[in-house]
Structure formats: C-alpha cells, structure tokens
Amino acid sequence: MTLQAPPNRLNSDGKVRRVGIEIEFAGLPPHDTALVVRDLFKGELNVVSPHRLLVEGTRWGVFGIELDTQYAHPDQALLEEQANQDSEWERHRHQRRLEFHQKTREFIGDMVTGLVPTELICPPVPWNELEELDTIFQALRDQGAKGTDASLLYGFGLHLNLEVARLDVDYLLAVLRAYLLLAHWLRDEIKVDITREVLPHANPFPKEYALKVLDRRYQPDLAAFINDYLHYNATRNREFDLLPLFAYLCPEHPHALLHTKLIKPRPAFHYRLPNAQLSQPGWGAVVEWNRWVEVEQLAADTQLLQTRCDEYIAKQNRPFMMRLKDKLTTWMRR
Fold it and tell me: How far apart are CA 118 and CA 67, in angstroms?
C-alpha cells in the first residue's frame, strides 16, 4: 500500500511531522518482543524490570515493551522512596521491603503473561518513514504475535499519536470537525472489533457535543475549546483523545483529569480507534495512517468542511420519524 501524504507535511517549526505508534498483542511476551525489535532496528536492550524492557539507540529513539498491566511492574514511587538513615537496621529493612516488592511484581507478571497483552510503544517516527517502521509488524507475525482478529477475547488496539501541524484553535477545531464527520466512515472501514466496541477504551463522542462543535456559530478561543471538550468528555476513553494535547497546551489548567499520570502531555492527537490486525498480512501503521489522512484532507478543505458541517446539522434537525426511517433503511442495506 502506497503511503499517502497529508496536506500539512511539516510542523510549526518547519520539520517533518512525526507519528508515535502503540500496539497491543498476544502470543509474544515482552522479552521476546524486545529481541525482535533489537534485531530489526539495531538497538541495545535495556531490561528495566522482568516485564518492562527498552530498546535504545535506534535511528528513531527508544522503543518500550511491557506487559500492559501496572501490577506486573515495580512501583516507581516506592523504588525512589528514601530509606531512614538513622540506623543500619532501618536501611536493611527498607532494602528487604524493596526486594519483596520487586519479586512480588515479577511473580504477578509471570502469572498473567499470556492473559494480558504485550504493549509495544514506538518512538515518534517521521510520517514519511512509516513504511520502514511497518517491517516490525511482519516480524512480530513471524514470531507468533496475535492481534484483535485472532480471538473474540482479544480487544487489542493500535494507537497513533499524530503530531499536530499547528497549535492554533482554528486548525485544531477544523481537524476535530473533520473527525466527527468521518468517524462513522472510519468505523466502517476499520470494522472495529466487537470486543473493542463493548469495552470503553475507544468510545464515540456524545451526539450533543458533535452538534455543538459542528455548528458554524461555534467559534471558541482556546480556553473555551478546552473547557467545552472537558465538559462533554471528562474521560480518556474517546476514539479521538485530545487530553494529551490539552495538557501540553495548557499545563496550568485546573481540571484534575489533565494532571493524572496516565495523561502524557504532547503536541499530538491521540487516535485510538484502529484494531490491531496482526493476523492480516500487509496490515500495519501505513494502512491506518492512510485512513487518517482522509480526516486531514477534509480539515484542510475549508469550503467542503463547512458544507459537510451544515449538512450534518440540517440532517440532525429533521423530524424524528424521518431520521428513524433513514436509520432503518441504512441498517437494512447492510
């Protein structure tokens, strides 16, 4: 599949925009996954703990590989806790406590390996180098990694952290509007796995919020844009998550959600809708990137975007029975 170029290829500093990839899968534990990454991208293995590893020194930066559960990893706050230096006994007691904690977390990780997914967190890669990054997906397949489509019990996803082209509210609002308009199409194209539909991790936006944002009269400044989003979407579990971007743009914002340790501030959209289709030959980040570019193309076409927004609002304002008839017709055609 040919990699599609976005309408905005550079960031606000004039550099090629980057994309961070996160993927969950089964069938390959973290250590074996780290070896695959190291051998493919010529990095150095760093074992942080038995179920959390890094591959450092690659051309793009650091790859992280870990079991996707916090209980398999030592608590960093406990590891950094200082021992009472008043006596040798207290120092010895503190050390034994740390050793017990680490062994317990290692045991938990051993027990749940195979039950919880392995997560691979790739460093940000220039969008025009995604085809080279995609070689990792075939390598994982060859070693037995299994994606969402391998079992009804697997609700694994692929997340794209898409560096923004600009930070102004007009650009951000245009991209959000384009996403809201294309969200249904994206779900149909991706064929979002039923398990992932049931789980809350990639929920759609509330209709009430979509109606507010797509109305041409909605022209907020950045503060109002952030506050409205938080009012209607006080959760990490959105298919198109703006919380990391807002935490980056407004680090002093008082909303508690923007200050949780699970929110990592960065100048990027966190797009979490795609399945992890590792069982499908040829599937990878390029496939999902190309789908995403459709959103950016619509966002960049000001006139078409406004027309589509007006059409959406007009359609939703029709009488209930007419809307119900259209839904039934669409359902019967599937």
Answer: 5
Contact between 108 and 71 (Cβ < 8 Å): yes
What CA–CA distance (Å, rounded) separates 283 from 287? 6
> Angle CA(23)–CA(40)–CA(289) in degrees, nearest 5?
40
Contact criterion met (CB below 8 Å) for 245 and 237: no
Q: Do 269 and 173 contact (CB within 8 A), yes or no?
A: no
- Per the CB < 8 A criterion, the answer to whether 257 and 243 are in contact is yes
d(CA 23, CA 140): 11
Per-residue tens of pLDDT for the chain, all 334 residues: 799 999 999 999 999 999 999 999 988 999 999 999 999 999 999 998 877 899 999 999 999 999 865 655 566 666 666 655 566 656 666 667 666 556 666 545 555 565 578 999 999 999 999 999 999 999 999 999 998 877 766 778 999 999 999 999 999 999 999 999 999 999 999 998 777 776 767 889 999 999 999 999 999 999 999 999 999 999 999 999 999 999 999 999 999 999 998 899 999 999 999 999 998 888 999 999 999 999 999 999 999 999 999 999 998 887 666 566 666 665 556 5
Q: Where are the beta strands (DSSP E) in the chain?
A: 18-25, 44-49, 52-56, 63-67, 118-121, 125-126, 158-163, 240-241, 268-271
- Full-model pTM: 0.86
Contact yes or no for 312/214 (Cβ under 8 A): yes
Report whether 161 contacts 269 (CB < 8 A): yes
Tokens of 223: 């503060």
Cβ atoms of residues 144 and 27 within 8 Å: yes
Q: Rounded to an integer, what distance in angstroms lies between the CA atom of residue 21 and that of residue 12?
A: 21
